[in-house]
Amino acid sequence: MNHDRPLPGSSLAQSPRRRIGTAAVALASVVGLFAMAVDPAISTASDYEASSSSQSGGQSLAALATLEKGQWRLRERNSNATRDICVTNPSALVQLRHGNAQCSHFVIENTASQATVHYTCPGHGHGRTTISVETPRLIQLQTQGVIDGAPFSSEFEGRRTGNCR
Description:
mainly beta
């Protein structure tokens, strides 16, 4: 038995070119997901159902089900810049930076107080958002990813301020 030969299908059995290509794709994914750049512009949370095109099988997000609909003020932690948005569907907060782009969603965490979703928007990028619900009127939102080739990473505190105007 020759112990110096790699097993068929193992990464060692791949050609050097294929191993480098696989490593490059993995590195590009990591860099894209965790790139740290801040862009203060955010999209309006609009009507769309995060689970409608989801790979999670139509799974709804338990934490977001407790949020009150209405006018919300998002304050960015780094700059204290604020933006008021009308939230008619709390699921829209998942892809805050990608707005109405048609995206597929993969639910990573779904508890009564926290939801984490990775989403991919063909031709526009991808993101990962974690929303922690403190009360039905107070959230912490962290989002990062790539939009149209540019990385973003932002943290917001969101508070409901009343009815939509």
